[in-house]
Design a protein that fits this description.
Layout lengths: L7 H8 L1 H25 L6 H18 L4 H19 L4 H15 L2 H4 L8 H10 L9 E6 L5 H9 L3 E7 L2 H14 L4 E4 L12 E4 L6 H11 L5 E5 L10 E4 L6 E6 L1
Parallel strand pairs: 1-2, 1-4, 2-3, 4-5
Antiparallel strand pairs: 5-7, 6-7
Length: 264
Amino acid sequence: MSRPGPDPYLLRIARAPAVRALLIQCGAAPLTLAIIYVMASCRLPVDYWSVAAVQGLLAAGLTWKLGLAAWWRVIQLLFPAALLAALALRLPPWLFLAAFLFLLGLYWSTFRTQVPYYPSHPAVWDAVRQILPPPADGAPLRVIDIGSGLGGLVLYLARQRPDAECHGIELAPLPWLYSRLRAAIAGSRARFTLGDYEKLDFGRYRLVFAYLSPAAMPGLWRKAAAEMRPGAMLASYEFAIDARAPDRTIHTTEGEDALYIWYF
């Protein structure tokens, strides 16, 4: 009998840049201690700030060597000093816990998905409305915003197109709860689901809208190409797909990023 392979979900977490960055900081710590020991042996001045500087430089160097994105080098460089500064302020412990819980609810598994909170704006919403097909008999017009955030696009489309089933799915609890409350207060037909869009069947929707991040686009395209049916559309604001050029590009306002559209 063959042994079961590693859990794909756990592998994705282990490969997430945030997890790798944390492991780099941990790996740099013994090197930092060795360097500080040598500095002290040579009678060089050593204090907490010099330890933070050495740790930051080592972590940033390892981050560069291992090929993480450029912004991670800056984060790794400044993280030890920022941590030391926070401790020096002597803030009450509950404040750190409250900030952690708020950010956890807002960003949730951004460390894994690499999709931060990107809000779209009304000009984009209206451009999406304009590409929707007209009302027709037969199969319902289902639209979904994957990573719906605070729900602005879904609520707008539900108002403008009462014939459509407008859905949103969001992985982070706080934006999902906020969008649910907005829909309830407004009496909107828009529906919001807490969950991961990767578990959806894209074949149920005529339009899938995404405003994600460059890191998520290859996986999004693989899923869309495998599941979306003829006549459906994939729309992505700002971020294109390397594997296939868009069939249509719309600039919502002058100087704004583009809305890319692929037809199936």
